[in-house]
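Handout, page 2. Input:
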Amino acid sequence: MAALVAAGGFAAYQQWLKPAAQAPQATIVYRTAKVTAGTFQRVLRVAGTTAAKQYVRVSVPRQRGPESRNMLELLKLVKDGTWVKRGDLMAEIDAGSLLDHVDDIKSSIVQAELDVDKRKSEQGVEMDTLRQTVLVAKAQLDKAKLERSAADVRTEVERELLKLDEEEADARYKQVQLDLPQKAIVHDAEVKILGHTTDRHQRHAGRHINDIKAFTINSPMEGLVVIQSMFRGGEFAKIQQGDQVMPGQEILRVVNPKSMQIEANANQAETSEIRIGQKAMIGLDAFPGLKLTGKVYSIGALAVGGWRSNQYIRTVPVKLDIDGADARVIPDLSSFADIVVEEKPDSTLIPLGAIREERGKNYVFVKQGEQFVKREVTLGSKNYLHAVALSGVKAGDELRLD
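Output:
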């Protein structure tokens, strides 16, 4: 047993005395990328939503009577996303109360016409009475003249009284004669007033009848129905059948999905580089794999501010045409567009990760054999990934990134 222990200790001692084997030296591996030749593009990204260039807004009709501010109920409403043709029924508004109101107006028209006939009859009686009064005044004047003709046998006082009677009868006769045409004018004015009242009621009823016709809303064009939202129950929700809506409120749009655009906002500081006609690559958040092309066709003239704390941030509205048509592109989808603000074909492109800046100069490390050699380069335009190399490297050179 002792011999075994001694043998083990000797072996351990021998092992300890042996020099440690040299560990192999680690090889350093650098990430690299090659210089490429191609078209350089610098893009400006804007975010927005899809919208149709060709569309029609459909709003609740405004009434032309004093009831124009009353809330109205949607009896029927087409479903969101329905394809409609020109003339198809899209919405219908409850016109029950308005029909009752029209019936009341028609009753007023009938009563006004009866009032006209009644007043004309009364005026005929009044004119007959006035003509009779004229005849009585004429008879009194003739009597006064006859009595004065026998004034020779009367005293001076009686003759004077007879003269005064004749003058009074003559004045009364002339007065009632003047009353006759004046009364005719008054009667004519009264009939016209009653006629205007009837006409006013008729116009009132006519306006409401036209309003009732507008309560049935048909599609003015062929396209896709996009239902609008309203504030209901503390949040925004799509308008639906049975909702109470205000006159003039937009309830839906009919859009042509073959003419789509992107409505976006660009930061005011960046819009100086945006020009009408610039190409753009467009993507939709709902369809990550879908890539579309388009171009800028509209740039807002004025910048607008944000809300509340962002009111000092100014943006400019920008609209972009989408080339072609795709069934997946429908209104109100969140989207983005990379607008090409600078493009240079046949450029030498260096990855930004390979560039080192020292004392205002730019350098790269170019692989030569197993080594990387530091080399100064002259750079041109840059984007988020590459820089254009004007001198110092050529396409195919392998550069160290880290």
